[in-house]
Write a structure and sequence with these properties.
The complex is a heterodimer of chains A (137) and B (103). Chain A is an all-alpha fold. Chain A has a single domain, classed as Orthogonal Bundle (Globin-like). Chain A is 64% helix and 0% strand. The radius of gyration of chain B is 16 Å and the shape is globular.
Chain lengths: 137, 103
């Protein structure tokens, strides 16, 4: 019994805190996330509804931070170290229309990356709570 | 004495002007003013009066710094230890540019 407990204890120590889940793997792991972020950002920059939101921003930095954030949201082995959604979006004065355009562009990117519809919905469900942190007017 | 009085009154005004010239405000994703003149060894205080997080950096031969990020309402002071003309930039907002002439 003691040996069993010790085994469980050692296993617990060996398990990373981030507890990688299936969504991350279903999205293609880090290469899949990277591809998705690049496709999404390309869509944002080409979308006349929201492209101006990014006109003053460092796009390379946004891509890098989104890759960490999407990875973390999907349950991958990343830690998002960027600022809160409130802090980064506060001055942009985004509307629900802006947010919806962003989600549409993300869905288009997920389609182009061949992410299955059910997987898309699982990922979007994790992003949905950010809506009220991003939309400020 | 009458001629001395105006000169005496000018001293505090000049000191105030010099103090103002050493403060740069970050607002509307821009530096205000966009160009300043200072002497070697003097400092500039950057006040984030914006709705965005900012940071500042200089990458020049012989003089460079790269600050932490500052939330709205926070200040950061940097001392310019080398003479020359430097561009101060923000990693987050690449269009922000301040030109600093250091004598």
């Amino acid at each position: 019994m003691k040996a069993l407990a010790a085994t469980f204890f050692l296993l617990a120590l060996a398990t990373p805190l981030w507890a990688q889940d299936a969504l991350f793997d279903d999205m293609g792991g880090q290469p899949g996330i990277n591809k998705l972020v690049d496709a999404s950002v390309d869509n944002y920059l080409a979308d006349p509804r929201i492209k101006d939101v990014f006109s003053e921003s460092n796009i390379d930095r946004i891509r890098a931070e989104l890759k960490d954030q999407f990875c973390a949201v999907a349950g991958g082995p990343c830690r998002y170290t960027g600022h809160s959604m409130e802090a980064t979006h506060k001055g942009l004065h985004l509307t629900n229309a802006n947010f919806n355009a962003l989600v549409e562009d993300l869905q288009t990117a997920m389609d182009s990356c061949n992410i299955p519809f059910a997987t898309q919905n699982r990922f979007l469900a994790r992003l949905a709570p950010m809506q009220h942190q991003v939309v400020t007017r | 004495m009458k001629k001395l009085l105006p000169l005496f009154l000018l001293v505090p005004a000049a000191a105030f002007a010099a103090d103002e010239a050493h403060t740069v405000v970050q607002k509307g994703r821009a530096f205000r003013p966009a160009e300043v003149n200072i002497n070697r060894g003097e400092s500039l205080t950057f006040t984030n009066d914006d709705e965005f997080i900012h940071q500042i950096y200089v990458q020049a031969p012989g003089f460079a710094f790269d600050s932490d990020e500052r939330n709205p309402g926070q200040d950061i002071t940097e001392t310019f230890t080398a003479p020359g003309t430097f561009e101060v930039r923000c990693h987050i907002h690449p269009k922000m540019k301040l030109v600093v002439h250091v004598k």
